[in-house]
Amino acid sequence: MEVVRSDRKSSSNDVVVSTLPLYRSAPPLEVRLEDFELFAMDRLRVLKGISDGLSRGKKPEEMENLAMDLWKANMRHLEATEGVNKDVISHFVLRLVYCRTEELRKWFLSMETALFRYRFHSKSSEAQRVLMSEFKLPYKPVSNAEFESVKDKLGQVARSMGQTLPAADAIFYKVPFEEVPELVAGRRVFIHKGHAYVAMNQVVSLVVTQFRSNLSKALILTNRKWTSTIREQEKDRLAPIVEALCTSYLGPDYSQPKEFAEISIKDIDQISKTSFPLCMRYLFEKVREDHHLKHGGRMQLGLFLKGVGLKLDDALAFWKAEFVPKVGAERFDKEYAYNIRHNYGREGKRTDYTPYSCQKIISSTPGVGDHHGCPYRHFSEENLRAALARMGVGSRVVEDVMDKVHNRHYQLACTLTFEAVHGSSCDAGINHPNQYFIDSQKILQSKNGSVA
Amino acid sequence: MEIRVSIDREKDFEAEMTKEEAENGRDEMLIDGPEQANTVPDGFNATYLRIYYGKLFPHADIFKWMSYGNDGKHPACDKSYFGRREFSFTLENDIYIRFQSFNSVSELENSIKEKCPFKIDIGPVYSVDPAKRHAYAQSGHNVFTPVERELVFDIDITDYDDVRYCCTGADVCLECWPLMTVAIKVIDTALRDDFGFNHILWVYSGRRGVHCWVCDGKARRLTNEQRASIADYFRVYKGNENSNKKISLPGPVLHPFLARSYTEVLKGFFEAKLLSKQNLLASEERYEKILEMIADASVASELRGRWQENKRLSMSKEDINIARWEQLKHILQSGKQKSQGLRRCVEEIVFSFTYPRLDMEVSKHMNHLLKAPFCVHPKTGRVCVPIDPNNCDEFDPTTVPTLSQLLEELNKGGLRQDAESEWDRTSLGESVTFFRSSFLLPLLKSCKEEIESSHNAKLQQSKNALSW
């Protein structure tokens, strides 16, 4: 894939339109720099949507509908060819974005594989067969004689899933069981002597396994290319875009406090207990206790407070009151005040900085002496349990929360905590600490009839 | 104190004996009368263990096994293979040393003899020598990663505490041990018939459970996802402590694997043994637990009514558990119970009480450590001996040789020195022989074939490349 250089013409007519692109190799397409980023953002919206859906435990059918809706909303193009181009380009841009760490690769691999699964499933069986042949899978349908010999068992498996018996002309593929782990895990295939008998309506698993393994290998290669050449060659052009894309948060950014604008210092203590998510509550308690916070903590809490509606003057007063006992007024004015004004866009490049999203907080890497980060991810199990107990979360919910934590659904763990603390459901899930705050205030307001 | 293990020949032991004498004081020395000349006091300690590692532990067999044919002379052998395997030692006082690696059988043997670990764990084969992992880490790329590992299973009797009334926790007796036997039968059959594995080693964990090592080449190369899929294939438990029904078997019929396990193993065991051995329906407290699993409250209360009534009647001829079970089955499976779910309750109850309970996490990840066979359990002093899955009914955990028993047997052997087969003079001999003939030899044979065929394939490939 080339990013546009003036002397080349668009070559979109040469692209072979297939039922679904398999992203085997980067297309010889030219891409305008804006499209490079925009296409990637659009695809990212789809992947993030899928990720949210999965972490909220949606059922497979719901997920398929969700994915197809997301795809239509973000990726469809009036012209079919352009649509395919956008599909392919955005995939390869994100490959670059998400090749760079193990964690990013893992996320991208899961989401792209899920997306491919839903798209494959929605295709006609003719298109599916074409795709299967494109993967060049070395599997042949089971012969009639063999089918007869295992027919009873195949029927037993089908009925165990509440399906009808396979017809006499049903196509089954005999594959090593290693190729279809999800079918094995669900006992949805008959397995004999190391071979699984996969029905035609199950080949999606076979294809998806292949897709996943191809993409996994490709991501490793892309990563090597990125570190060895691309990052350096593109350091002024693509690299900044690529580096910004993976942390970009696509929901509302909460940089301007809206509904509950203007809180004053005297309310903070009260509000921190009722409406702060655990990450902020903990930072808030720490700054009260230690009269200090390291940079990461000041940023995470400071920007959150800005989003909550703390004005610059109040923010300065708040931090000063906390820090002075430890560092003295003079040092505070010299070393810390600048940073607070900076966060409010009054210094330096005058950017109005946005509060951190959950994703950014979860992927942060707090070190020794740091208190920022996501408690669900960064606390030890023991400390997290104690912290939840202090928030008044009942022991049964704590188990549910820990279960989510063990499965690395940190936002879902936070959502459960929110629901337990507020005695009210939170269907949208928690994606941003400021969203937690706003949702909490809404609930409290409706309960009390007045702002807390 | 009489541990006459060829003291005259081995200086190490002489040194140890002196230390032992010092530790145990004079009392035991005084007991040393003619009648007790060959008794070794029960127990587990470093001195006993040192003799065990010196005389009995089959170092060479473990090395042969873990080399998987790569210690041979064939040009396709991977000489680095054994050296990339992680061993972990738990020393006396719970000092735990991980990432030990050895390049030869003598390195392995010397280290075990020198460190005298209370427990030896075996981990995966890594991409690079685990002892040098830090050196590789400095190169920037994370090349230190597990590449091969036996597919392992860990079944622990403590996980059955809600369905056994004879013992709790770490205790195990002949009443509840058959639960382990059933687990071996169900899992072993599925590993062979369904998954097509051939080289499977079952080992007594030394106290309260069994370990299973699946050693076929394709088992060792499974990814974590594939391991998890096998573990999930075996999983039927879904509930937690707060749900009455821990097993849910949905669908109009059972999957062939579950159906086979039920008809060939579980049903017979439940009805012929477990019901009466554990008195599952004899008292109100116990039968209530089973009635809770019946989805229809009216059916449950009908049974409850009958059982409360007939508790006074003498059921002298027939076992009360069996009689009540027949009643339960009759009601649930009789024609008038149309609902599929209710008929399924019978199977669900049997599965709840008998189906193997695996420690899933051990099987799902390549880098989980598992105790090596032929270790000695520090709490029981029993050796982790192999179990023959074809004769697992005969395995009796209470007669597994203990450390002190083996040393005693060595003593009895007296001066009959036969350095090659010390264990033949002890009851460990049988276990070592079984390990070799039933597991190690067939395994090494197939490893050799695999190495040769992959070598030939490579030769063929390079020939083709040349001709082209």
Automatic annotation (TrEMBL), chain A:
It comes from the Eukaryota. [4Fe-4S] cluster binds at residues 279, 358, 374, 414. One of its GO terms (molecular function) is metal ion binding. Keywords: 4Fe-4S, DNA replication, DNA-binding, Iron, Iron-sulfur, Metal-binding, Primosome. Its cofactor is [4Fe-4S] cluster. Residues 269-437 form the DNA primase large subunit C-terminal domain. InterPro entries: DNA_primase_C, DNA_primase_lsu_euk, DNA_primase_lsu_euk/arc. Pfam families: DNA_primase_lrg, DNA_primase_lrg_N. Belongs to the eukaryotic-type primase large subunit family. This is Probable DNA primase large subunit. It comes from Durio zibethinus (Durian).
UniProtKB/TrEMBL annotation, chain B:
InterPro entries: DNA_primase_S (IPR002755), DNA_primase_ssu_euk/arc (IPR014052). It is an enzyme of class 2 (transferase). GO terms for biological process: DNA replication, synthesis of primer. Its EC number is 2.7.7.-. GO terms for cellular component: alpha DNA polymerase:primase complex. SUPFAM superfamilies: Prim-pol domain (SSF56747). GO terms for molecular function: DNA-directed RNA polymerase activity; metal ion binding. PANTHER family: DNA PRIMASE SMALL SUBUNIT (PTHR10536). This is DNA primase. It comes from Durio zibethinus. The gene is LOC111307322.
